[in-house]
Amino acid sequence: MSTALQTEPNLFSYRLYWAQRFGIAPVLPMSKAEMDELGWDACDIILVTGDAYIDHPSFGMALIGRLLEAQGFRVGIISQPDWTNAKDFMKLGRPNLFFGVTGGNMDSMVNRYTSDKKIRSNDAYTPDGVAGKRPDRAVNVYSHRCREAYKDVPIIIGGIEASLRRIAHYDYWSDKVRKSVLLDSKADLLVYGNAERQIVEIAHRLANGETISELKGIRGTVHFVKQIPEGFAIKDSTDIDHPGAVMPPQNPYQEEPACDKKSDAATDEKVISFPSSSVGTHRQQIKDQRAKTVIRLPSYEAVKDDPILYAHASRVMHGETNPGNARPLIQLHGARQIWINPPPIPLTTKEMDGVFDLPYSRVPHKAYGSANVPAFEMIQHSVNIMRGCFGGCTFCSITEHEGRIIQSRSEDSIIREIEAIRDTSPAFTGHISDLGGPTANMYRLACKDPKIEAACRKPSCVYPGICPNLNTDHTPLIKLYRRARALPGIKKIFIASGLRYDLAVESPEYVKELVTHHVGGYLKIAPEHTEQSVLSKMMKPGMGTYDRFKDMFDRFSKEAGKEQYLIPYFIAAHPGTTDKDMLNLALWLKRNGFRADQVQAFLPSPMSIATAMYHSGKDTLHKVSRTVADIPIPKSVKQRRLHKAFLRYHDPKNWPLLREALKDMGRSDLIGNGKQHLVPSFQPKGTVETPEKIQRFKTKYTGLDNTRSGKSKPQPVNKNKAKRKPKKY
């Protein structure tokens, strides 16, 4: 990690709380009986989660729980409680310090609903995959029940669900802008990101007698303020990013360059010329001034009714995500103000090792018996080697949650975990399912200059091209792979995390290592689309980079004597996508012989850049205003269904819909029975979709008939005609 950011106390440097005398629990208790076995009369901290309790570092509550235990605190877990009353929230008694509440490893709304807002039939984080074990908006509901159980106990919310709702945010499921979750949950404090630093500091300060209302200014937290703290200046967000006429900036978030060695730290203040002897002093003055400046975002009441102001607030917020230069934000919600502190300082390698070396049992809690937890089955033999992502994909929320600075474990720590899996897991067969993280190949990659990194405001280090200041050396990762697969008892190590192939092609040696030793016949990668107009809204590389990677992949597979294939993933209905774009993608798929079994439709997750596009109808990677041209946003059920159908052009159920669309687009030449055609002209017997069903679908969701009049009143369907067999063409 950059030395420029190492200003926080070491995570394990705090004096241990007195309860450390009770020692390490085999597993964190989930019942009074387990507490009695440990000799506890109370818990200091109780963590409430929407997931099954798996004592494994891939599960957030286990990691936070074990970390707090390592600080000397007695930590209990309330997993998937009955939320209909407060009884389950009282089963461990009153915590001495606070309740920590999370919806789980996944956002509870994403967990329960598909991108088409249909209820999912299972939940991978629940024993036996049973659905319905957590409520919608679980953070809100759990917090309310905690308050009912013990009204005077502080409530701290965190995890992905709280993290992505820390400011006023667009909510896809209700199709409106909602308040910060801090207000809706009625919690006392919100921690965002992975939260190790802030939760440890909070626990020790509360244990030392401070009240929850005194915990202000902690990085990575959101809290209420009655007035601006003394010494802070207020800067209106419209002074930074005025939502006016379009003026193409040099990079998406500012006028002045952010990653240029000739530039000082990016600032919004006017640059003043100083004599050379005083330049250093001036730089320090600017730095000090920025540290004492808070940016006022438009209020909740303003953004909830104005998509342009919402897009503006999103742009400003995303410009304040680098812990090296981020300023606090403030946003009014009615009569209350929330204060969003800058992101936490990333963990050092030593701290990352300490977190992952904690004494996890690595198995589900015994209360689940022989039940299978699908998420555990997926990750029990995988190893997380890093966190964070500097890719900046607009549809992804990793940067908003984990940050863009890569935090890597040491090679020794990773090897110790592989050996622990080998030696302790009864189900281990010699195969490690993954060595990765948010991405597979950003391990130990960082900016070459810590000062540039601390000053940078670019949302991506790899778009529109790889920043010249980025170190792309994959040597440490290659060395790790070789050492790991040489361990006794390890038969195969797979790489299953998402691969940034634009980075991989910078290291042919890495691609060869990956292809030769770590691919199990198929490698999944995510170009996401083929059309540049769409890729520019995603901040993804063009297909030329994919072609370069595929050439390397095929060449090294042949040299290794292996028959291996790339499986590309694509997104349908992303903001900026037209029907023609999806048609071109479908034609590319057909030319290259791909037939997708599953397709992914864009889901507007809270706070992402693409969600701001979806809600505002504007390209928020550039300045927005009411006069800027709209971009296409596939919102209707019919259009989203059509875009998914293009990805599955080979499915007969989609052919009637695609035939109709191709005719409307003037591309009837793609309907026929030759190799040059996208869909055949006939409909096989037994397929579900018929022209009549498509018409009924359109009537149901649009209220429009199929006539040229465009009247909204649905026209009656001729029942006798509907009974006729579909005509074969």
TrEMBL record:
Pfam families per UniProt: DUF3362, Radical_SAM, Radical_SAM_N
Cofactor: [4Fe-4S] cluster
Binding site for [4Fe-4S] cluster: C389, C393, C396
Start and end residues of each stretch annotated as Disordered: 681-729
InterPro entries cross-referenced by the UniProt entry: Elp3/MiaA/NifB-like_rSAM, Methylthiotransferase_CS, rSAM, rSAM_sf, UPF0313, UPF0313_C, UPF0313_N
Basic residues: compositionally biased ranges: 720-729
GO molecular function: 4 iron, 4 sulfur cluster binding; catalytic activity; iron ion binding
Domain of life, source organism: Bacteria
SUPFAM superfamilies noted in UniProt: Radical SAM enzymes
Domain Radical SAM core: 375-653
Transmembrane segments: none
Cofactor: record remark: Binds 1 [4Fe-4S] cluster. The cluster is coordinated with 3 cysteines and an exchangeable S-adenosyl-L-methionine.
Keyword list, A-Z: 4Fe-4S, Iron, Iron-sulfur, Metal-binding, S-adenosyl-L-methionine
Family recorded in the similarity comment: Belongs to the UPF0313 family.
Protein name per its UniProtKB record: Putative radical SAM protein YgiQ
Organism in which the protein naturally occurs: Methylobacter tundripaludum
